[in-house]
Amino acid sequence: MKDEIVFLIDQNKLPFEFSILRSKNYKETCLAIKNMTVRGAGAIGVTAAFALTQAILEKRKNLLEFVIKAKNEIEATRPTAQNLFFATNRVFNAFIKNNIPEDAIIESNKIAKEDEDFCKKISYFGNKLIKKNYRILTHCNAGWLAFVDYGSALSPIYLANKENKNIFVYVDETRPRSQGARLTAWELENENVKHKIIPDNAASYLMANKKVDMIIVGADRIAKNGDVANKIGTLGKAISAKYYNIPFYVAAPSSTIDMNIENGNQIKIEERSQDEVLYQKGLNKDGKIEKILVCSPNSSAINPAFDITKAELITGIITEKGIFKTEDIKNFFDYKA
Ligand code: MRU
């Protein structure tokens, strides 16, 4: 954020167009989270922090009342994303402590810096798990686009690649919005990591044929018992991985851990528009981004955005503090808003 304007990479246009959205007030920033101009755990959190800061900096008469309303509005945008609540609570508490609006700016910048630092640390710990010539499968996008920098699931992959471990990545396309095919593949291309996009339903086949050495995914919310909410489809990968004895890791900073909930059953799953399933976006022959219907015209669709992977299916959780067994999460993290 600079001069109360929040600058965001427009992820809806990637990989076809790289553009920066300038968001002038908290309403616009709220909309950018809601319509997924910005998405990904850390990126949502930091954007929410700055959105609330924009509201706090507005010169309103009943400022506190206005800020509480704005906070509720921001938190309603993406209900599954723990980083969002983590960030809004921190900024709000920093502001009300001494009633100084500028304290919100300091806190938001702190959250952004932490996000970057934590992801960098995740790269060190996760890289230790990656052996030479490993073929790694990932789902959705948990790279630098999804955070301030580095990413969660992808940051160990980038480090392993920089250390010339000759790794290869299978990128789940991740229907319905194709964050894998559009965003992860684009990031990997930019980082010179060998990869191929696979249809979501090809993963078990590859595992059965001993083509996958490990799986790393990100997380949107982690419960106290180590259950993980992540992009829809994650659960299926975890079940197959367990069956075929393939290590299944989740990478996430502590800001994604929700110590207020005992297990994954308490996580609210966001339902998104059926249009994401029924329509696809791509480049037309004139080089313009176009949306087309790809399903039976009179059918409707259901679109849960996340699923819950039970702790027992997860080999370990890679965090900025190290790699933990799911049952140990509650002993090492204590953040409660
Ligand atoms: O639908 P999205 O793109 O908002 O999905 C959320 C995610 O980015 C993923 O679940 C991701 O794997 C974890 S967040 C880094």
Describe what this molecule looks like in 3D:
Helix content is 38%, strand content 18%. It is α/β, with parallel strands linked by helices. The protein folds into two domains: 6-119, translation initiation factor eif-2b, domain 1 (Four Helix Bundle (Hemerythrin (Met), subunit A), Up-down Bundle), CATH 1.20.120; 123-334, Translation initiation factor eif-2b, domain 2 (Rossmann fold). The strands form four sheets. It has a seven-stranded mixed beta sheet with strand order 5-4-3-6-9-14-15, with helices on both faces. A four-stranded mixed beta sheet has the order 10-7-8-13, covered by helices on one side. Strands 1-2 form a two-stranded antiparallel ribbon. β7 and β8 form a beta hairpin. α2 (41-57) packs antiparallel against α3, α2 runs antiparallel to α5 and α3 (63-75) packs antiparallel against α4. The model has no long low-confidence stretch (mean pLDDT 96). The structure holds 5-S-methyl-1-O-phosphono-5-thio-D-ribulose. 5-S-methyl-1-O-phosphono-5-thio-D-ribulose binds next to β8.
